[in-house]
Amino acid sequence: MRVSNTFVGKWSLAPLLIAIASAGPVSAEPPGDKPWARVTENDRAIKIETDKLEAVIPKKKPKQWMTGIEKGSFLDKTTGFREIGDGLMVVDWLMEAGSDEAWRDKVFAPDGHGVGRYTWHTNETEPARRHYALMAHGSSHRKRMVEGPQLCHRMKPVQPEVIQGKDFIAVTTTYRYEYAAPGRKAGSRWTQRIVFPKGERYFVLMDRIDSVNDSDEMFLRNDTPGCVRHDRGDTFSEIYLSYLSGPKGLRIPSREFFTPFPPDRKFGYRRDTHKTPEHFIRAYHLRDKKTGKDGPWLGGLTLEPSVVYEAWCSQRPGGIIVMIEESHGKPVKAGESFSAAFIVGYFDTIEDMHKVHDRYKGHTALSADKSGWRLVK
């Protein structure tokens, strides 16, 4: 590993870029060596298999959402546990603070999807929409969409770029937002880059926005690391939030999530009301549904805590814990960009997560080319 004052990353002294054939798998090692990883790609998805992990990145027709790591595909080969929600690092709207009250019931996207905050489920009655908005977003801190669609839900097929080096695999997906709120332009570009390093039970990820609009408080919404599906705690035993209740963080038993509650009821974080923490880690402790025994932690580490605008960990009806995180939340001019960098994966202990966070903290961007991958400040 080489370290400078601008980046930290793993470098391959003799990197190997292998062309990805859609007809079958290829390895990430020179001929004669035992391959540590392979990529299998078809017209629907890209499957990554390393010495420690498996993951699928969808291109079209996803099992749940189009962005991030596909639902149920993230496997820890060390323990046999998988992600238990609807996927990891799922990306949502491009948003800003403010109210859409003046136009929310009148403006619709080209695909018929409501643009306003309360019209995302346009076939429901107004009371039903307001109840959904309360449980999904809370009653305070009003927000509105700048550009859509909700990428995880409605973006069209994509063709990610894959780079394979001697000790890493990088997958980069880009997409331009297709429509905008009144008075705004469409066309801001979202980039998600995911790097799978050799020998690690985690991946490194960046979400970046290149904006075509001005905003006083623009942010990108995603799930970090992802939602949790459960039936009275059958799939997890506790949740850990490093940024609440002091320097050691908060460990929340699963029983706290047996009854639904909105985002602003408890376990929330706002940059304007909370002190910026030293670490920003969100994780859940996996549990075997059959035996009840604990497995590893699945954690999401935001490498620069100050980029977090708001985050919540709330229980919606239907057995789903939502782990929304919003990044940036600062003034943006057309032509400017912002990004956030994360590490997501399996850890045996909370201390292990903190050690990895300390190793890479302070970075907000991620690049990759034939020579290697780099986390950038």
CATH architecture: Distorted Sandwich
**Number of structurally distinct domains:** 1
State the CATH class: Mainly Beta
Helix content: under 10%
> What is the number of helices?
3
Low-confidence stretches: 1-27, 118-122
Return Rg in Å: 20 Å
Distance between the termini: 17 Å
Beta percentage is 35-45%
Shape by Cα distribution = globular
The structural class is mainly beta
- CATH fold call: Beta-galactosidase, Chain A, domain 5
Strand order of the largest sheet: 10-11-13-14-26-21-20-17-18
The averaged pLDDT comes out at 88
Number of strands: 28
Largest sheet: 9 strands, antiparallel
Describe the protein in words.
7% of the residues lie in helices and 40% in strands. The protein has a single domain, classed as Distorted Sandwich (Beta-galactosidase, Chain A, domain 5), CATH 2.70.98. The model is unreliable at 1-27 and 118-122 (pLDDT under 50). The protein has 377 residues and is mainly beta. The chain has three helices and 28 strands. The strands form five sheets. The chain has a nine-stranded antiparallel sheet, with helices on one face. A hairpin with a 3-residue loop joins strand 4 (38-41) and strand 5 (45-49).
Task: List strands and helices in order, with pairings.
Blueprint: E1 2-3, E2 7-11, E3 26-27, E4 38-41, E5 45-49, E6 53-58, E7 75-76, E8 91-97, H1 126-137, E9 143-148, H2 151-154, E10 161-164, E11 168-176, E12 179-180, E13 189-197, E14 202-210, E15 215-223, E16 228-229, E17 236-241, E18 250-253, E19 269-270, E20 280-287, E21 294-302, E22 308-311, E23 314-316, E24 320-322, E25 324-332, E26 337-347, H3 350-360, E27 365-369, E28 372-376
Antiparallel strand pairs: 1-2, 2-28, 3-4, 4-5, 5-6, 6-7, 8-9, 8-15, 9-12, 10-11, 11-13, 13-14, 14-26, 15-25, 16-24, 17-18, 17-20, 19-22, 20-21, 21-26, 22-25, 23-24, 27-28
